[in-house]
Amino acid sequence: MNRTLVIDAHVHIGTGDGLHGPWDTAAPLSLYLDRARPAGIRGAVIMAPLTSDYPKANATIAALIRDRPGLLGYLFINARSEAGTIQQRVAHAVGQGFCGIKVHAHDARITREIAEAARRWRLPVLYDPAGDTATVEMVVRSYPDVAWVVPHLSSFADDWKAQCAFVDQLVRLPNLFTDTSGVRYFDLLEDAARRAGPGKILFGSDGPFLHPAVELAKARALPFDTDGMAQVLSGNVLRLTGPARLRFRGRRPAVRRRVA
């Protein structure tokens, strides 16, 4: 029996108002748990789905991470509509137990305001650039003391050229990381694993939109030994969120107990 702790580093939970697709309509916790528990996933980093009202959606996440000890939370921010308020919002979120920031280029490109808040509070930023690897290069190099996690090898849309360019960035830039969610071309993910090493890759599912058991099987297929796989499945996310989790004294560390 495999006893390696597994924490899903990319999960959306809540209700959106876009009604364009699952990503901005519905992401039920119950559906995610029904799929994650049998796969042996013991913890998850949760964040809102895409929506026009992130303060409301983040309040749902805050309640879940307060009440369910198996869950960690990332604050979802719209860099455009929330500009000018981000430092205050992040400070408040850290007090609620959030341990990272999520930004999506669908809303707006990453900004200095977000990067500086992440640096101030030592939070990782999960940034989906929608294939815009040039912006990734600029922000990661400009803020070398911030941990940047770019999911899907930079493109959920399977932009192979963007993903190839991103793998080179992942190897070159020490503060750049990726997660395994939604990567269709396994050869590219395997190439990233071999070249960048296990310390740069986090298991993430993008659940419940993608099935966490399927995504976990893909992560387990990567060419790592036992120690390397432990980094991918939980060690890296624990390391990157460690400063924020240690700072927040209102609850015990969440990851030692099963998602409930």
Largest sheet: 8 strands, parallel
Overall pLDDT score: 94
Estimate the helix proportion, in percent: 40-55%
Q: What's the gyration radius in Å?
A: 16 Å
| Low-pLDDT windows of residues | 250-257
Distance between the termini: 21 Å
Task: Describe the protein.
With 260 residues, the chain is of the alpha/beta class. It has helices at residues 29-36, 54-67, 86-96, 112-121, 133-142, 160-172, 186-196, 212-220, 226-247, and strands at 7-12, 14-15, 26-27, 43-47, 71-76, 100-104, 125-128, 148-151, 176-179, 201-202. Strand 8, helix 6 and strand 9 form a beta-alpha-beta unit. The radius of gyration is 16 Å and the shape is globular. The chain starts with 6 loop residues before the first strand and ends in a 13-residue tail after the last helix.
